[in-house]
Amino acid sequence: MKLVCTKDNLKKGLFAVSRVVGSGNSLAVLNNILLKTDQGRLKLSSTNLEIGVNTWIGGKVEEEGALTVPARLINEYITNLPTDKVTMSVKDTTLSLESENYHTNIRGLSSEDFPLIPQVLDEAYTKIDSEELRKALSETVWASSQNETQPEISGIFMAFEEGKLRLAATDRYRLAERMVVLDQPVSASREAIVPSRTVMELYKILGSSKGMVEIYFSETQVLFKFDETEIISRLIDGNYPDYRQIIPKEFKTEAGLSKDDLTHALKAASLFAPESNNVQISVDKDGVTVNASSAQAGENVTKVSAKVTGEKNTATFNFRYMLDCLNNLAEPKVVFRMINDASPAQIVPEGRDNYLYIVMPIKL
Amino acid sequence: MKLVCTKDNLKKGLFAVSRVVGSGNSLAVLNNILLKTDQGRLKLSSTNLEIGVNTWIGGKVEEEGALTVPARLINEYITNLPTDKVTMSVKDTTLSLESENYHTNIRGLSSEDFPLIPQVLDEAYTKIDSEELRKALSETVWASSQNETQPEISGIFMAFEEGKLRLAATDRYRLAERMVVLDQPVSASREAIVPSRTVMELYKILGSSKGMVEIYFSETQVLFKFDETEIISRLIDGNYPDYRQIIPKEFKTEAGLSKDDLTHALKAASLFAPESNNVQISVDKDGVTVNASSAQAGENVTKVSAKVTGEKNTATFNFRYMLDCLNNLAEPKVVFRMINDASPAQIVPEGRDNYLYIVMPIKL
Q1: Which residue of A302, A304, A326, A327 is the best one to mutate when testing the B interface, meaning the one whose CB has the most B CBs within 10 A?
Q2: What is the pLDDT of residue A306?
Q3: More exposed terminus of chain A, fewer Cβ within 10 Å: N or C?
Q4: Best of B73, B75, B104 to mutate (most A CBs within 10 Å, chain A)
């Protein structure tokens, strides 16, 4: 292998593929990135056996070839490099990097030992605007279960129906649901559960990418493709819970209020809920009151002005579940809805109907 | 106690005193900050029994009093508070904080249980411009020993002689020395060893402070006073090593080169010195060459252009010791001087003669 490329392109390519690679894998090749010439470009690949990432960068290929090298080492080396261009060449299992005054050999491992990243060959199933998808993921992905014993809710549910994608994430105590308009309506509906880790990687690698994300499916895999990058992941096998039946249709109490005011009030109260995470939220005609108390720390009561309709109401919530939602909404105002101290409450951004968040009160 | 003050003043005061407070002390009052009305202002104090910090903020005192409250809790509470003003009042051992819609009680401990912070009553021994002092500390403090079994070199040496302060820090493998012009010459020379932790706190609390730092001494204590803040610390008992005798007077080789070029070269080499930290530096008429190799990772050689005089020379250094110095110099160019592979080498910023750094080569 021999090729010349710019440092910036190489850095960008390494950024995309490096995040899924570990550094302490007992199978050494899993700590590595595969570099391979591919139709006049350099293809970089990484995998953790659950997620695979491929990306292509431009370069002047002078000789075909391939090698895997430690992800962390080449990443740190290229990040530090002050030069504009890099000449890469492979001899046996050594990668040479030459650029101006910098002469470096990195020991690698044969490309033949690198796990095969599955290919998803079908035509694109659908397309989504990448900024829209990124926003939708930021409003949902954190709500999924961290508990690996419930595999089906440890992923993000994706239901494609005609011109829409419905995203959902839940851990059974709270639920985030987001609708996204597809750029290319689907001909046949489809449901899938994508591992949270895959969705987090997709979110991070998408970064400030503009343009379209193409989605491909096989029986057991999903592939997201944008710019010059592909993320391939296994799907989670199982039935996603029929969560829509628990979304209340009607509420008894509604309060429209400033997201920042509510956030500050919850954070103040959180300091007085050091062990339980429990804060009490009360709504009456004067507004919303947030309070918490602890025998050791003390107590806090904060009034938040709100436009309230309906009955007065009080319930106890995990403040982290409230903040997770508020921290990920862009709107300055939110609507908070309640039924009673044992039924799901709801948060939605004011003036937008493609998102809802449901949170269960804590039974004391 | 009752007083009204601005949130910003309180936040600033808490910042100054909070850094020395732990949160897991078995003696609970050491996790706390002492709040005390003092001649029409609020005095905030903290101590870890080695270092004490006092700071004063303006406020409208309506009733005298004092209480200690958990540092972390009040800090986080005030940092989050979106209001402009805070009314504080004490009843028994509870501090009430009232501001607009926020009503909070924090459980504290009696001010009588708070350790006495020693007073250093003498007149100011000398004065130093605070920006000058901060720069001088940034160039030296990290060079002191982390090894508590050598208490005298775990501190920063300060020698006041007429119109100058000489600062030194060493761990026996490297040495940083900095001269600072005093704003008020001393009438009697004095030497002291100040704990590194004290100097680090001073450095951080100094922040962007302008104006003068006054220095006071007692037999066993030093006090730094600036703006509305005092840091009091014990001194380290012992004799600082007579380090000046090991500073070479003459060198065989001198290379003037770009600080950034040398830094990049050292960082590139560091990736190929994962266990030993050893990098080889060679100087000849063509410039400076930095290289490292490891059986596992590979090898790197970087040429750095330099203006070289004297003999050619090669030695091995701990790259961290080189980078510690380079990372803390503001100048774009440095001068690197060598004798041989067993004698101290030197780094100085080009065009400034109040600083020198000595580093021992590694014997292979």
Answers
A1: A302
A2: 98
A3: C
A4: B104
Give how far Cα B256 sits from Cα of A13, A81, B68, B161, B310, Å.
36, 21, 55, 31, 12
Query: Is A104–B261 a contact, with Cβ atoms under 8 angstroms apart?
Result: no
Nearest to B76 among A95, A103, A271 (CB): A271
**Cβ contact, residue pair B102, A268, below 8 Å:** yes
Domain at B2-113: CATH code: 3.10.150.10
pLDDT at B122 over 80: no
State residue B318's pLDDT score: 98
Phi and psi at residue B227, in whole multiples of 5°? 45, -125
Mean of all residue pLDDT scores within chain B: 96
Task: Answer whether residue A102 shows pLDDT above 80.
Answer: yes
| pLDDT, mean of residues A63-80 | 97
Contacts of A80 in chain B (CB under 8 A): 264, 267-268, 271
CATH label, A250-359, candidates 3.30.200.20, 3.10.150.10, 3.40.50.11060, 3.40.50.620: 3.10.150.10
> Hey, where are the domains in chain B?
2-113, 126-244, 249-359
In this predicted structure, the answer to whether residue A340 has a pLDDT above a threshold of 90 is yes
**For residue B360, what pLDDT band results from cuts at 50, 70 and 90?**
very high
Tell me which residue in A101, A107, A305 faces B297 most closely, judged by beta carbons: A107
Nearest to B321 by CA among B355, B270, B283, B254: B270
CA A177 to chain centre: 14
B298 close to A (CB below 8 A): yes
With cut-offs at 50, 70 and 90, classify the pLDDT of residue B131.
Answer: very high
Contacts of A282 in chain B (CB under 8 A): none
**pLDDT of A26:** 85
B323 interface with A at CB cutoff 8 Å: no
Same fold, A2-113 and A126-244: yes
How far apart, in whole angstroms, are the C-alpha atoms of residue B12 and residue B132?
22
Cβ distance B300 to A102 less than 8 Å, yes or no, reads yes
* Cβ B260 vs Cβ B312: under 8 Å: no
Using the Cβ of A286 and the Cβ atoms of chain B, whether some distance falls under 8 Å is answered with no
CATH class belonging to B249-359: alpha beta
State how far the Cα of A110 lies from the Cα of A96, in Å rounded to an integer.
15
User: What's the token pair of residue A10?
Assistant: 């190489």
The per-residue pLDDT for range B11-34, each reduced to its tens digit, is 999 999 999 998 788 899 999 999
What CATH superfamily is the domain B126-244? DNA Polymerase III, subunit A, domain 2 (3.10.150.10)
What value does the mean pLDDT take over residues A82-99?
97
Which residues on B lie below 8 Å from A103 (Cβ)? 300-302
A24–B contact, CB cutoff 8 A: no
Of B167, B183, B82, which Cα lies nearest the Cα of B130?
Answer: B183
- Which among A7, A97, A104, A296 is the top mutation candidate for probing chain B, defined by the most B β-carbons within 10 Å of its own β-carbon? A104
CA–CA separation, A9 and A70 (whole Å): 18
B109 near A CB under 8 A: no
Q: Which of A154-163, B22-31, B279-288 has the lowest mean pLDDT?
A: B22-31
Strands B126-129, B355-359: pairing kind? unpaired
> If pLDDT is split at 50, 70 and 90, which confidence band does B264 have?
very high
Residue A24 has pLDDT above 90, yes or no: no
Mean pLDDT across chain A: 96
Q: Has this prediction a pTM greater than 0.80? A: yes
